[in-house]
């Protein structure tokens, strides 16, 4: 059983609607719906909150298959392209060219990854030289971390729609949010949603 089915089963048992669960998680109901349909998977911070809501350990959402229990689960991996460097600070130029490949779990829904340069996302535990894995998509929900292209520059920030404009918010109190009005939209393009990151091995 996948994570989405487990969430749906527990939500129904607890007598919650998708909207009620979404409110407890501070997300849109459509996000819960996409989890339950298997279109997206919640990040670990949401899994932790779900574990508290349903009073179960985090491991409950990742049950072992029969093959895993028997110790014969095959290792399934895939390679995703590393497209260069992304700014976590001031936007920097990023040529969309593959410089290498990173091996990840086959079931992870990611399309490419980018190295981080800067410290503007450190309060989200994303540090300089970390690798961020991105699922390519043209839109994200408010508050999600996204790779955003501004002209020929790319930055990693929390993304918000606000009063007809866009706010790119850092996770470091040293930096101020950046606001872009509707007239700037032709220069702004969401490359994708940040799904997880990998810290540099020291």
Structural write-up:
The protein has 202 residues and is α+β, with helices and mostly antiparallel strands. It folds into 2 domains: 3-68, Orthogonal Bundle (434 Repressor (Amino-terminal Domain)), CATH 1.10.260; 77-198, Umud Fragment, subunit A, CATH 2.10.109.10. Helices cover 22% and strands 33% of the residues. It contains 5 helices and 10 strands, in the order αααααββββββββββ. The chain has helices spanning 3-14, 18-25, 29-36, 44-54, 66-70; strands spanning 77-87, 92-93, 100-105, 112-117, 131-136, 145-150, 153-162, 165-169, 178-180, 188-198. Strands 1, 2, 3, 4, 5, 6, 7, 8, 9 and 10 form a 10-stranded mixed β-sheet that branches. Helix 1 crosses helix 3 (29-36) and helix 2 packs across helix 3. The longest helix is centred in the N-terminal third of the chain and has 12 residues, at 3-14. The radius of gyration is 18 Å and the shape is globular. The two termini are 36 Å apart. Residues 90-95 have low confidence and may be disordered.
